[in-house]
Amino acid sequence: MSEAAILFDLCDYVLLRNKCLCSAWLIPFTLFIDSQSKEFLDTHSLVTHGFHCKKGSLRTEHLGLHKALCVLMGWNWDVIPDNSRVYQMSPVPEFKGLKDDLIIWPPVVIVHNVSIGDKSITSEPTKAVTNEFLKGTLKEMRFEAGKVRVCRGKPSNQNITLVKFMPTFSGLQEADRLHKHYRDKKCGRKELEEVTSKESSGKDAEPQVEAEQLFYGYMGTMEDLDKLDPETKRRCVLKSKKEIESIADAPVRVE
Q1: Does residue 255 sit within a domain?
Q2: Transmembrane segments in this chain: where (predicted)?
Q3: For 12-107, where are the E strands, in sequence order?
Q4: Is there a contact between 175 and 143 (Cβ–Cβ < 8 Å)?
Q5: What is the rounded distance in angstroms from the CA atom of residue 198 to the CA atom of residue 202?
Q6: Are residues 51 and 116 in the same domain?
Q7: What are the tens digits of pLDDT across the range 105-115?
């Protein structure tokens, strides 16, 4: 197995991401290549190896590993990695767009119920809100039965629910419709981060919260792999949303 291929195994991806983000990135990496192992002191060492490796037959794979790690960490892959580590301080402008473009496939919308585990929400009606409300929302939005499936996300996080769509272009369109539904209601990823930040800072939440305001949702992307249940994680891949859309929009050749 090549070093680049290791990165794109999704289970390893989540483990690698957590390892890379660990304090000071000083946990050693050991990669196994054709029964041989190679150890790297930290993320910087691995990125530098990926860029500077001159093995002819593996040059492309090493450059792919270098760029993938930079995308993973938000670093600039256009700056040569050296001991100054300048590349870590100057992320490329298109990084956020690239990160958002790599979606989980088949498409998944990740929905958070912020009433679960939130002691600041004391109203009984809001505490009683369950995923039945989410299923009712899907029905009101006229999502076709049998083409949308609701299931639990990561077992250790009970406030996450996954809305899974078909692995087709129409499935992507439906997932995008639900994503925009939450975004337009100010209940998207950005707003969830604000709510989470407010809770962690100890600020009081609103005393009365409408049921709809308890749900925050967004399209699952590369940074959301650790929110999936093991079975979904095992079966999914990462795909470029732009590439899928470009293929769907390609003109049909007339013979």
Answers
A1: no
A2: none
A3: 29-33, 36-40, 102-105
A4: no
A5: 7
A6: no
A7: 999 999 998 87
